[in-house]
Amino acid sequence: MTITNKDKLIIFDTTLRDGEQSPGVTLTVNEKIEIAKQLSRLGVDVLEAGFPVASQGDFDAVQRIANEVGPLMVGREAIGKPITIAGLARAVPADIQRCYDAIANAPHKRIHTFLATSDIHLEHKLKITRDECVKRAVAAVSFAKTLVTDVEFSPEDAGRSDQDFLCTVLSAVIEAGATTLNIPDTVGYNMPEEYGAMIKYLIANTKGSDKVIWSAHCHNDLGLATANTLSGICNGIRQVEVTINGIGERAGNTAMEEVVMAVHTHPDFFPVYHTINTSLFFRISQLVSSLSGMVVQPNKAIVGANAFLHESGIHQDGVLKNKQTYEIISPETVGANTINLVLGKHSGRAAFRSRLQELGFGELTEEEFQVAFNSFKTLADSKKRVTEQDLLALLSDQVSSSAGEKTTYTVKSLQVVSGTSFATATVQLQNTQTGDVLIDAAIGKSGPIEAVFLAIQRLVGKKIHLLKFDITAVGQGVDALGQVSVKIAEGSANGSSSDSEDSVTETEEDKDAGLNKATYHGHGADSDIIQAATKAYLNAINRLVANESKRILGERKVDV
Amino acid sequence: MTITNKDKLIIFDTTLRDGEQSPGVTLTVNEKIEIAKQLSRLGVDVLEAGFPVASQGDFDAVQRIANEVGPLMVGREAIGKPITIAGLARAVPADIQRCYDAIANAPHKRIHTFLATSDIHLEHKLKITRDECVKRAVAAVSFAKTLVTDVEFSPEDAGRSDQDFLCTVLSAVIEAGATTLNIPDTVGYNMPEEYGAMIKYLIANTKGSDKVIWSAHCHNDLGLATANTLSGICNGIRQVEVTINGIGERAGNTAMEEVVMAVHTHPDFFPVYHTINTSLFFRISQLVSSLSGMVVQPNKAIVGANAFLHESGIHQDGVLKNKQTYEIISPETVGANTINLVLGKHSGRAAFRSRLQELGFGELTEEEFQVAFNSFKTLADSKKRVTEQDLLALLSDQVSSSAGEKTTYTVKSLQVVSGTSFATATVQLQNTQTGDVLIDAAIGKSGPIEAVFLAIQRLVGKKIHLLKFDITAVGQGVDALGQVSVKIAEGSANGSSSDSEDSVTETEEDKDAGLNKATYHGHGADSDIIQAATKAYLNAINRLVANESKRILGERKVDV
Question: Looking at the record, which segments are called Disordered (chains A, B) (predicted)?
Answer without folding.
Answer: 491-518
